[in-house]
Amino acid sequence: MTSDQAGKQYAPFTQLPPLAGLGGTDASAIQLPATPADVKSSVQQEVEPLFQMARKVIEDHDRWISAAQDEEVNRKERQELLRVAAEIPQDTQVTMHFQLPTGSKVTEKMQPTQTSYEIYTKAFQLLQQEREFRIKVEGAEGEHFSKDVNEANFHLSLESLGLKPGCSYTVIVS
């Protein structure tokens, strides 16, 4: 098809009113490419910015996906840490189960910073009589802990004696 034939083929379209914002639409303003190579280079110039924009969108999306995956990994790590922290006993006190010579039992919570003298004082109060007695602290089930409480260690804190917060111990008063 020659360019003269192409001009006649599109002649009815050249008579249409112009769109708002565009220039005139007379037949002389329309230039058809002379060869397919002209079309290719013209299209390539118009399409290349679109492909660049598409590449940028894909790169941005890949970065977003990567950041979302990293955040998911971090979130799971934080949840695991919270689960572990929830399993740690929150009791900061030492539970003491006093067993008296009469067979009665009394439970007392004490701070790890309190001294062994305070164990002695509590035992004295529970006995309600003035007599000589001995005190031995033993660990909870599964713990091999045994410590005599006497004047030599009255100044030591429960923690210094080896008693741990959140654990229970039996105080045998004899």
Automatic annotation (TrEMBL):
It comes from Cladocopium goreaui. Residues 1-27 are annotated as: Disordered. This is PAS domain-containing protein.
